[in-house]
Backbone:
């Protein structure tokens, strides 16, 4: 029996939207207030959804403790209270939440115990982003 | 491909009524919503668009631009209005949450550069919402 498991994590980070490919004027034009040279920050919420067969003995899609430990090491310890622009993954790309979604999808794709279906990131209460790995979202999720 | 969702709010009055029906039929089907003096809600609309991330800007769409389009095409027309009396599409269509989601889709379709409209979700209140994925959905 297949089921879906979602878990939410939170981290707070600063960033600045700025591309070396643009001059200063173009950066201000494209990124507006997000281009403020001193940066700004958000409380990000990351919701990861995994699918898998429910283990007939444990009743679980995957071990939540193992998922939390993975998230602590690979997500929270890397991103929480960090400046996103200084992380390796944003050396050559802008720290938009679109790009952040793709990076976090890549990270949780390496959690081997269940199949990653979706990464959903809330940047503010009004903006959110989803990476479902290129295909169409599972019915009812988005 | 990334899916991006932008949320906005509007507050409007409405009532449910079909002119071709008798008062009894309207009351039976729509109950309290058929009160012709109207009532209102704080609506939340979530617009989800899908597109590829621009390799330079890192954007699917400019969120500010999406906010402005939503404001211009929907919020300005619906907010603090009586949907039945002041919004053209509801002169002939009952302003249910389902129909509002379809109407917002039609208002936004083709107006968002570089992205495909994926879903309109309208909350009439936090416990009740409708989704529309376009004619193909």
Residues:
């Amino acid at each position: 029996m297949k089921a879906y498991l979602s878990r939410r994590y939170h981290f707070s980070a600063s960033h600045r939207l700025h591309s070396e490919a643009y001059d200063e004027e173009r950066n201000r034009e494209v990124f507006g207030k997000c281009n403020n040279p001193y940066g700004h920050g958000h409380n990000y919420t990351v919701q990861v959804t995994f699918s898998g067969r429910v283990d007939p003995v444990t009743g679980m899609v995957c071990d939540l403790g193992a998922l939390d430990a993975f998230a602590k090491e690979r997500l929270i310890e890397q991103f929480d209270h960090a400046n996103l622009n200084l992380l390796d993954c944003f050396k050559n790309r802008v720290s938009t939440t679109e790009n952040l979604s793709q990076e976090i999808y890549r990270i949780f794709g390496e959690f081997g115990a269940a199949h990653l279906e979706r990464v959903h990131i809330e940047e503010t209460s009004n903006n959110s982003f989803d990476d479902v790995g290129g295909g169409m979202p599972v019915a009812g999720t988005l | 491909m990334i899916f991006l969702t932008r949320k906005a709010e509007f507050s409007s009055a409405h009532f449910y009524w079909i002119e071709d029906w008798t008062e009894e039929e309207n009351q039976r089907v729509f109950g309290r919503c058929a009160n012709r003096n109207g009532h209102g809600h704080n609506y939340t609309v979530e617009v989800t668009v899908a597109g590829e991330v621009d390799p330079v800007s890192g954007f699917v769409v400019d969120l500010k631009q999406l906010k402005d389009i939503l404001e211009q095409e929907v919020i300005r027309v619906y907010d603090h209005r009586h949907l039945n009396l002041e919004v053209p599409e509801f002169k002939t269509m009952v302003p249910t949450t389902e129909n509002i989601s379809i109407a917002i889709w039609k208002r936004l379709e083709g107006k968002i550069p570089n992205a495909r409209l994926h879903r309109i979700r309208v909350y009439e209140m936090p416990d009740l919402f409708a989704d529309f994925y376009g004619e193909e959905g």
Summary: The domain at 2-132 of chain B is CATH 3.30.479.10 (Tetrahydropterin Synthase; Chain A). The longest helix of chain B spans residues 63-78. The interface with chain A takes residues 1-8, 48, 53, 55-60, 62-64, 118-119 of chain B (CB under 8 Å).
